[in-house]
Write a structure and sequence with these properties.
Length: 271
């Protein structure tokens, strides 16, 4: 028996990286999955997003665990799309217990339209998380079984570092803003036994980090990246590291944990 047998999880950014790792890990624990990913690029960003083929691979991996999955293409910036996707998943599985607002973007290189870069990062990371959670809350409350909401912030959401790159500024602002939203929701939903927490990973080996634009910054010894160092001798975490922690956080074993900012950061924030 898994720790999440019979439960249903809604996960954004599930096409690859942390989102895919969450989907597979929670499925291994017995959860059925409602998965969404934009599956197209955002022009202001300097790296490619997940593709439809990536989301299809997530479906195969979840189904290989024996669990069910409803997967849809969708943009977290579109509230009505999030509401429709959640409703479709609940109609298929009959309930909703877990929400992982994971979709996010970043641009650390310079160039492009600064105002568009800033706006897109805020829209995806902050407004997108708001759309995701607000679309899910009515279903969690209606279920009457409590629930768990996990919002993917970042180590940057706890400790900002100096940068004149617009994307880095927007990223830090958006990830810090998620903490405020989390605290509001944690207070609002506590009477329904719905827990809300943020997680704050350091660098994770995903498409957001492992791409040509980021490699060029590392090769150039970008001063902004030089400040992003972990205390432990771990250069980068794996998506499964984050998913393992989240599997605990959404389980009944963590039934008393809400309103927290959990650093999953190899000691980044203590440096």
């Amino acid at each position: 028996m898994g720790t999440l047998d019979g439960k249903v999880a809604f996960i954004t950014g599930a096409g690859r990286g942390q989102g895919r790792a969450h989907a597979v890990r929670l499925a291994e624990e017995g959860a059925d999955i409602i998965a969404v990913d934009i599956c197209r690029d955002i022009p202001s960003m300097d790296y490619p997003n997940a593709s439809n083929d990536d989301l299809t691979e997530t479906v195969k991996l979840v189904e290989s665990t024996g669990r069910r999955i409803v997967a849809r293409e969708g943009d977290v910036r579109d509230r009505s799309a999030m509401e429709t996707i959640v409703a479709d998943g609940v109609a298929a599985f009959g309930r909703l217990d877990i929400v992982i607002a994971n979709a996010g973007i970043v641009r650390l290189s310079k160039g492009g339209d600064d105002q568009q870069v800033f706006r897109d990062i805020i829209d995806v990371n902050l407004i997108g998380a708001w759309n995701t959670v607000e679309a899910a809350i009515p279903h969690l409350i209606e279920g009457g079984r409590g629930g768990s909401i996990v919002i993917t912030s970042s180590s940057s959401g706890l400790r900002g570092t100096g940068s004149d790159a617009t994307g880095a500024q927007a990223y830090t602002a958006s990830k810090r803003g998620l903490v405020g939203l989390m605290q509001v929701w944690a207070n609002l939903l506590a009477s329904h036994s719905i827990r809300v927490n943020t997680i704050h990973p350091t660098g994770v080996a995903t498409g957001m980090v492992l791409n040509e634009a980021m490699a060029a910054l590392f090769a150039a010894n970008d001063p902004g990246l030089a400040t992003m160092q972990n205390a432990l001798p771990i250069q980068m975490l794996q998506p499964e590291d984050i998913a393992n922690a989240v599997a605990f956080l959404v389980s009944d074993e963590a039934h008393f944990i809400t309103g927290t900012t959990w650093p999953l950061d190899a000691g980044f924030t203590v440096r």
